[in-house]
Write a structure and sequence with these properties.
Blueprint: E1 6-15, E2 18-28, E3 33-37, H1 44-51, E4 59-64, E5 70-73, H2 85-90, H3 99-108, H4 122-134, E6 140-144, H5 152-163, E7 168-172, H6 176-182, E8 185-190, E9 193-197, H7 204-221, H8 228-267, H9 269-275, E10 281-292, E11 295-306, E12 310-314, H10 321-328, E13 336-341, E14 347-350, H11 363-368, E15 374-377, E16 380-383, H12 384-390, H13 407-418, E17 425-429, H14 437-449, E18 453-457, H15 461-467, E19 470-476, E20 479-484, H16 487-494, H17 497-507, H18 529-556, H19 561-564, H20 566-598
Parallel strand pairs: 3-7, 3-8, 5-6, 6-7, 12-18, 12-19, 14-17, 17-18
Antiparallel strand pairs: 1-2, 1-4, 8-9, 10-11, 10-13, 15-16, 19-20
Helix pairs in contact: 5-17, 7-8, 7-20, 8-9, 8-14, 18-20
Length: about 600
């Protein structure tokens, strides 16, 4: 077996009196694709910085093969000292490396290269740093949250770019779909130590659940008492995910109801509107248009949001998602058309910029408003410590200043604040930013139980699939179209990921990107006999996989299955994940062939 290109062995890092890393190990070989996962604050970014040689450690060893080249994408890049973005990206190239690749990458990420670093937004700076990291041809790539601030077309473009590389790769990301498609091995950082699974992310959660369940059994056998908050923070993860299996099935029913109700409204609009008492209609937009400086942001949009809907708004950066939200909420007047809001609406908005948080206040003061130790939730008083536990905070964090919380913890705090206020319409702008996998499960659970309506903007494809009953997608040039179902349903109805990327190109106007080096365009327009046979076979396979998934979901939803047979439940959950991955792969290939057939 070839020696690793990079090896971290028995790494320890102490912060104050607590150990952040306690014997962590990370081994990366040539061509390996590893996903590094763990809770917010577990030390993932620290371990990645140590691997990159940009952070020290208390004890342990770091070994990098002599002559091996390594590139690292930090969460907070520094572009100071460069006149343009192109200069910044060029500076990351070696003496004999191709400058045209820098231009190609910038174009793919929606930048021209002529931008001034001082005038970049945080998202644009991250995209410039990503281009600089990918521009050379390193032996190892270490990427810390590479999808942050990327839109859906950008994420899918990045997936294809990383798939084409042959270097070793370590990813830290909260994007499940991104990890499923790129990872071949998992490293789980938990309580300062690492565990490794030689399979991709599709197998991770079932494996993690088995590890935690076995650990819990061993703790009980030894007679050790597990603190209640730790039991919720750690072992509650498995229960939440298993409940979500049932909720995903419930979501399919909601989507079917949404399709049926929309059809009825379309055929008997006036009767439906007159009969919609008690806020049945939340938003009714009719032929709405809005332009800025001659550019159409919304053109002729007719949309109806019903009570209980979970509407996802998606599209490339610059498509006008924020403007559209303001139009639907009556905060921005349309140039033409009308927006009618439902009766007795109480709206709570989650601020993506987190401006509502005072960094000097403690977590407890932020939740209680500084008035005692009680939080009013749903008209009932709850002790702030108990409410904090619902959002995965520990009791000792009650007096922690908000300014010292991680990005994921601040996201959880905003959610906790939003849900203390009475509402029947939640408006969430990128709610999944910086959240770890366990918190994403918690957020999905809360939204599933929320009795009102949810309108959210997100670039997280898996989250949209798990939550949305319909997707409002930017089609370019101010056109928006609603699709029943989640992101995968939208792709199937819309014609595949390439159509999404084509719409993005109508919104972005960067300088022309150089042709991608060493890549030949695939032939289009007509299928060979072999491909026609493959297309037919794929249709049959997709139908069979859907039936198998339905049977597997029904089996998992059976009452008492987990209590009767925990190992069988874990195996069935893993099998369902495998079926889902196979179906996605088949659908992607089917869409590719259909596009070529149509071309």
């Amino acid at each position: 077996m070839a020696p690793p290109l990079l090896l971290l062995s028995d790494i320890t890092v102490t912060l104050g009196t607590a150990k952040l890393l306690a014997g962590a190990t990370l081994s990366i070989g040539a061509g390996e694709r590893i996903c590094l996962v763990g809770r917010n604050g577990s030390g993932k970014s620290t371990l990645l910085k140590i691997a990159a040689g940009q952070a020290g450690f208390d004890s342990g060893t770091r070994f990098l093969q002599p002559g091996a080249t390594l590139r690292y994408l930090p969460q907070e890049p520094d572009l100071s000292g460069y006149a343009t973005v192109l200069d910044y990206v060029r500076a990351g190239l070696g003496p004999h490396e191709d400058e045209h690749r820098a231009r190609y990458l910038l174009g793919g990420l929606g930048l021209s290269g002529e931008e001034r670093p001082a005038h970049l937004s945080g998202g644009e700076a991250r995209r410039a740093a990503l281009a600089r990291t990918l521009a050379p041809a390193p032996d190892l790539l270490l990427l810390d949250e590479p999808t942050n601030h990327l839109d859906l077309p950008g994420i899918e473009w990045l997936e294809e770019e990383l798939k084409s590389l042959s270097c070793g790769l370590v990813l830290v990301s909260h994007d499940r779909r991104f990890l499923e498609r790129l990872s071949r091995a998992m490293v789980w950082l938990d309580r300062g130590q690492t565990r490794r699974l030689e399979k991709g992310f599709a197998y991770f959660e079932a494996w993690r659940d088995e590890v935690l369940e076995q650990e819990e059994r061993e703790f009980h056998k030894l007679g050790r008492r597990i603190a209640r908050e730790e039991d919720w923070l750690r072992y509650g993860v498995t229960a939440r995910r298993k409940r979500n299996v049932k909720r995903l099935a419930d979501l399919q029913g909601l989507r079917a109801e949404r399709r049926n109700f929309t059809h009825r409204l379309g055929t008997a609009k006036l009767a439906a509107l007159d009969a919609a008492t008690s806020g049945r209609i939340v938003v009714d937009a009719e032929a709405v248009s809005k332009s800025f400086g001659g550019r159409a942001v919304v053109r002729g949009l007719t949309l109806r949001v019903l009570r209980g809907d979970r509407l996802a708004i998606a599209g490339p950066n610059g498509a006008g998602k924020t403007t559209l939200l303001k139009l639907l909420l009556g905060q921005e007047p349309p140039d033409s058309g009308s927006v009618r809001l439902g009766t007795a609406l109480e709206v709570v908005t989650l601020d993506q910029q987190r401006a509502a948080l005072d960094p000097a206040r403690t977590l407890s003061e932020t939740l209680t408003g500084g008035t005692g130790d009680q939080v009013i939730v749903g008209g009932q008083a709850r002790h702030v410590i108990g409410y904090m536990k619902d959002f995965l905070f520990k009791p000792e964090q009650a007096l922690t200043p908000v300014g010292t919380l991680s990005g994921g913890e601040r996201g959880r705090l905003l959610l906790a604040m939003a849900l203390t206020r009475p509402s029947n319409l939640l408006v969430l702008d990128e709610p999944t930013n910086d959240l770890d996998l366990e918190t994403l499960d918690l957020l999905q659970e809360m939204l599933s139980e929320y009795p009102g309506t949810v309108v959210f903007v997100s670039h997280d494809r898996d989250f949209i699939d798990r939550v949305a009953t319909s997707v409002l997608m930017a089609e370019g040039e101010g056109r928006w179209v609603e699709y029943a179902g989640g992101y995968s349903d939208m792709l199937a109805q819309r014609g595949g990921a390439e159509t999404v990327r084509a719409a993005a190109r109508t919104e972005r106007k960067p300088a022309a990107a150089a042709p991608r080096p060493a890549v030949t365009a695939s032939p289009r327009g007509g299928l060979s006999f072999k491909e026609q046979h493959e297309l037919k076979r794929l249709e049959e396979e997709m139908e069979r996989l859907r039936q198998e998934m339905a049977a597997a979901s029904a089996r998992l939803a059976a009452p008492g299955f987990y209590e009767r047979d925990p190992p069988g439940f874990a195996a069935a959950t893993a099998a369902l994940g495998v079926l889902q991955s196979r179906l996605e792969a088949a659908e992607e290939r089917w869409l590719e062939l259909e596009l070529r057939k149509a071309g």
